[in-house]
Amino acid sequence: MSSMGTNKKSILVVDDEEIVRYSLVNILKSNGYEVDEVSSGKDALKALYEKQYNLILTDLVMEGMDGLDLLENVKVISPRTIVIVITGYGSIKTAVAALRLGVYDYLLKPCDEKELLIRVKRGLEMQHYGEEQKRLQEVGTIAKVAVTLSDKINTPLNIILGNIEILRLKPELTGNPSIKESLSTMEKQIFSIKKVMEKLAKLTTAETKRYASLTDYEVIDITGGKDG
Predict the structure, then answer these.
(1) Per residue in 92-131, pLDDT tens?
(2) How far apart are CA 126 and CA 82, in angstroms?
(3) Which domain holds residue 22?
(4) How far apart (Å, rounded) are the C-alpha atoms in residues 217 and 210?
C-alpha cells in the first residue's frame, strides 16, 4: 500500500459526473497534486484499500453509496484522510450530517477554482499539523518512559561501578593485566548505557533526524551527536 509520507500530496476525486471529475482533476493536477478519480463510492472504497490518500474530494449525492456512506467508511479504513464534500445539492441538513461525520469542509457546485484550492491547502495543512502533534506526543512518551527506566537502571549500574573500583584496589588483582583490561571494558560499557539512558530521558524534537531517502521513517539519534 502506498504511503502518505511522500512530498507530493495524493487526492482522490469521487463524482458520478464525468465533466465534474475532469474539471476537478485538471485543476488539482495543474497545481502539483497527485490525483486519482473514480465515479462511485464503491469504487472509492476499492481505491482506498489499494492506496492511502491525503485527501478525498467527494460528491455528496451519488447513486448507490452516497457521500455520507463513503465518509463513514473512510473513517474506518483511513481515519487520517481529510474529506471535503462538494455537491450541487446544498442544504443545511446535508451539511450538518456531513460535519457530524467528521468531514473537514463543505463546498457547493459550481465551485470557484481559487476557493477550492484554498480549502484543499488548508485541509492538508491541518492533516500535517495533526500528524506532527501525534509525533511530538510519541516522542514525549518515550522520554517519560526513559526517565523512569533511567532511575531503575542507574542504581544497579552505580553499584557495579563501585564494585569495579573495589576490585581495582585489591593487591592480588592489580598486577593482572587481563583482569584490569576486563574491568576497564566493563566500566566503558556501563558508561555507554548510562549515556544512552540520559539521551533518551532528554529526548526532544531537536534530537530527531529526518532522512530524505527514508521519507516514511524517522530515525532518532540516541548514541551519536556532537557530544558523542
Answers:
(1) 677 667 767 778 887 877 788 898 999 898 888 886 665 6
(2) 9
(3) 10-111
(4) 8
User: CA dist 225 to 95, 129, 195, 200, 222, Å?
Assistant: 52, 27, 12, 13, 8
Contacts of 21 (CB under 8 A, 6+ apart): 13, 15, 37, 39
Alpha-carbon distance values, 90 to 93, 106, 147 (Å) = 9, 9, 54
What pTM was computed for the model?
0.56
Are 17 and 86 in a shared domain?
Answer: yes
The answer to whether residue 3 sits within a structural domain is: no
Amino acid occupying residue 100: R
- Looking up residue 63, the CATH number of its domain turns out to be 3.40.50.2300
Single-letter residue type at 91:
S
Q: Hey, what amino acid is at 36?
A: D
- Would you tell me the crossing angle of helices 18-30 and 113-169 to the nearest 10 degrees? 50
Judge whether 174 and 180 are in contact, CB under 8 Å. yes
Q: What is the pLDDT of residues 40-51, one digit of tens each?
A: 989 999 999 999
